[in-house]
Model the fold of this input.
Amino acid sequence: MSVILKGMKRTERVIVALLVLLCAAGILFLRRPRTSGVTVGIYYHDEVYLTFDPEKDRVIELDGDYGHMIIEVKDGSWRVREVECPNHICEKMGWKTVEDLDPITCVPNDIVIMVVNDAE
Amino acid sequence: MRSDTGRFVRLGLLAAMAVALNLVESMYIGSFAYGIRIGLANIMALITIRMLGVREMIIVNLMRVVIGSLLRGMIFGTTFWISLGGVALSSLSLILTTGLKSSLLFSSVVSSVCHSIGQVLVVVFLYHQPAMAAVLPYLLLGSVPVGLLTGYAAQRALKLVRPLENRS
Done:
């Protein structure tokens, strides 16, 4: 490694080191534990149909373009328990928590479930 | 380099090697976590800008994206635009760092970092998913060692090629 770094000027090494530190800080920031004050939204036709607090256990039922969908909220995570659609992809996506940035998507029903806001 | 023909031959060879490296990498190495790739083809961009110049480097980079995706049969698909975005930003940064007379290694790191940023920008615009920017810290952290690796490879290659320069 030191052999490789020899080819760089001093200021360049400082810039690269700063960049690495910045990235590490960014990762730590993204990974910080957070559970409270988060709202999850259910989007239907690109508009918020309903929002819920992932900390409160509940079962939400709604109808999409294709058929019925049952969403289960439990212990800070949520999933699609049952859905009427050809592939059941959203069911297979399983439980999601605040840490997951990717939304649960059901294309046939045009329903997307994702975090809408952080209170922090 | 004296003759135009010599220049064209070199440009052709470098572009061909960039395309080949691009394909070989995606076939045999692929990507690591968070989609981090080594970006072996970037070695050719680094060599080209030092050997032939800025214009030639842009040609080599464009060739590798266009011909690379043509050979995969996925031209003008999503992956094409993503890699074009990456290459555009990394080419720009290469021109900038070369203009500033920075070392090859630093240019390599910066261009690999900019490649990641360019790709993420395209993804954010294509999918309207600003949340995708959250992978940036991981990607950039991976880009640094990868950039050092390709920069080192380019350095070694240039050392071997330079003595042959004046022969044509």
Summary: The two ends of chain A are 40 Å apart (CA to CA). The first helix of chain A runs from residue 2 to 5. Chain A has a mean pLDDT of 84. The domain at 38-118 of chain A is CATH 2.60.320.10 (mini-chromosome maintenance (MCM) complex, domain 2).
